[in-house]
Amino acid sequence: xxxxxxxxxFNVGVDGIDSAHKRLFSIVSKLINLNEDTAKQQxxxxxxxxxxxxxxxxxxxxxxxxxxxxxxxxxxIHKSLHDNMKLKTIPALERELEAEKYSIESVQHFIxxxxxxxxxxxxxxxxxxxxxTSNKWVHxxxxxxxxxxxxxxxxxxxxxxxxxxxxxSEHYSxxxxxxxxxxxxxxSYSYDENKKLHAYLIYEESMILTMLSDILGRKVKKIDKTVxxxxxxxxxxxxxxxxKHFVLDNKYELTKTDLMTFEQVARVFEFEKEYPPYSLLFRxxxxxxxxxxxx
Length: 295
Description:
six-stranded antiparallel sheet, 6 strands, single chain, Four Helix Bundle (Hemerythrin (Met), subunit A)
């Protein structure tokens, strides 16, 4: 990953907020450089990430105070995005960092997820504070609905792939996984001509290779047609299991399953007017990420 450069397009128009965002970008740039310094990498990145977290939480509190001061109408949903990052995403990434002893790859994961989140959050949600864009996180599922879906996904990943999984984000918006390599499937359903549903399953490539190696009992080193077909079938089975718990009813019929690039899926997020209520990011113990998104 190259150095992160601040562009004027990130400006929200509130000096305190813009100054904090510039500082966050500066911290991330330093983390990228520290992660490439083999002599100091582990200790320096540990301290740098602590500072990033501390500054992020300070910024969230200040931004929330500003939103309250102007009676921002979308305050509650915006705060929920901050809370999700603070209480779910950063702690999950910290657990990975500790488990991996702040390895270069785990720090890359941390930086990649945070950079993707910052970019999307600033350009859409923060710009919405000053009326420059519209807020895309409009729907708020009930806590019971979200918990039920999360449990169903975690149980199904364990059943099919024998992996332990934890939620990283309940508001995934198409951020890259840092490795730059992912396998994505869009599974389409229809219920008469007017009702269609698309489920997107996004697997980090390292997760795929590790899981299939475990399933086959032999080392799988690359994604080929055999791997793609196997994951396609497993993805359809995944949705069969999920549908028994949530999302689909018996009226919806599977119409097709498409293999997509990560860039194609990212464009779906980019052009959506509103994000769906169910858009989740998970981390597995097999060193890979999995995202689930229903449109």
